[in-house]
Amino acid sequence: MQLSSPLTDHASAAGQPAWSAVGAMTMCVALLIAAEFMPVSLLTPIARDLGATQGMAGQAIAVSGLFAVATSLLIPAVARRHDRRHVLIALTWTMLASLVLIAMAPDFTVLMLARALLGVTIGGFWALSTATVMRLVPGELLPKALGLMYTGNAVAAALAAPMGSYFGAIIGWRATFWTLVPLVLINLLWQAASLPSLPPLPPDASKATTSVLGLLKRRHVALAMAGAMLSFGGAFTSFTYFRPFLETYTQASVPQMSMLLLGLGVAGFAGTYGATLLLGRHLYPLLRWLPLALGLVTVLLLGVGHHLWVTAIALAAWGALNAAIPVAWSTWLTRGVRDAPESGGGLMVAAIQLSIMAGAALGGLLLDHFYITATLLGGAALLAMACLLVGNGRRLQA
C-alpha cells in the first residue's frame, strides 16, 4: 500500500532514495535501544556499585522515559524551524555525552542526570524518525525503509541485554558502556556524510506539526495512545526486571542468563518478520491479541521459571511477541495519523516512553515491596487491559 502525505510527496519529488542516510538512522536507532535497555542486564552491579537498591537502579530507565516524553512533545515545534539534519546530529551528540557520563558516574545522582540526557535523544530522534524517513525515500519504498529501521531496533534488542550481562561480568558495567562510545562517533561521521539537508517544510506541509497534543482531540487517536501505553507499559513492567527474575526464580548463572536473554532478543527477529507479513490484512487483530498473548506468556514464566530449558522457550516466545508490538503500532501510525506524521510520531513516542517510565517504576515498586512474582503479574494485568481496550479495532479507526 502506498502512503500519501505532504512528506511522502516531497520524498517522491526528491528523486533517488537516500538509503545511506536511512542506514545511518538505523544504526543510531540500534545504539539508542542498546543504551536505553542495557541497564536491564546490569541492574545488580550498578545498584551495588552506586549504593542503591535494584528497584532504584530500575528508575534509571524510568527517568530516561520521563525526559523522552517531554522531548517528543516539544521536538516537532522546534524541529520545524531548523534543518532536520542538524537536529538529528545534535541529538546524537547528546547521546554521546550521556554515555560518557554514565560510564564515569560517581554516584546515583549523576547516573540519573546522564539517563535524562539519553532520554532527550530518545524522545527527539524517535519522534522525528518516521517523518524524516518519509522525506528520504519515495512513498512506495516507505514500508521497506521503516522495516530497515526496525531491524536496527531488533538487532539492539537482541544484543543489548545479553552483551551487557556478558561484558558486565568480564570488564564491569562502566567499561560496557564505554564500548558504545566509539560506535556513536562512527555513527556521527556516517550521519554527517549521508544525511542530506532537510530544511523546514513549507507552511502548508508542516502546519499539522504545530500541535502534538491537539491530536488527542481525535477520539480514535486518544484511544490508540491509551492502547499503546497499556501494551508497552505492561511489557516493560516485567522486562525491566527479568535479571532479578532469572537470578532469584530460575537461579541462572551469568553465562546462562546471557544465553537466555540472547534467545529472547534473537526471537525478536522472528516476531518482527512475522508481524510484517501479517500487518497488511490483520493490523487490528494483531493490536488486540499480541498483548494478551504476551501477558499469558508472562504468567507462564512464573509457572515454569524454575526449569531452565522451559524458561528459555518461554522467553523466546516472549521476545517474539514483544518485538511484534512496536511494528504493529508504527503501522497504525502511518494509517491513523498520516496527515500529521511528525506530530503523530511525537505523540506516539511520548505515549510509549511514558508507559516505559511508568512500567519500570511500577515494576520496581512491586519488586521492592513484594516479590518478583508481583512484578510479572502486574505487567500481565496491564497487557490484558490493552487487549480489552483495542477490542475489534473499530474504535482505533478514523
From TrEMBL:
The chain crosses the membrane at residues 21-44, 56-75, 87-106, 112-133, 145-164, 170-190, 221-239, 259-279, 286-304, 310-333, 345-364, 370-391. It comes from the Bacteria. Its main location: membrane. GO terms for molecular function: transmembrane transporter activity. It is found in: Cell membrane. GO terms for cellular component: plasma membrane. SUPFAM superfamilies: MFS general substrate transporter. PANTHER family: PURINE EFFLUX PUMP PBUE (PTHR43124), PURINE RIBONUCLEOSIDE EFFLUX PUMP NEPI (PTHR43124:SF5). This is Putative arabinose efflux permease, MFS family. It comes from Janthinobacterium psychrotolerans.
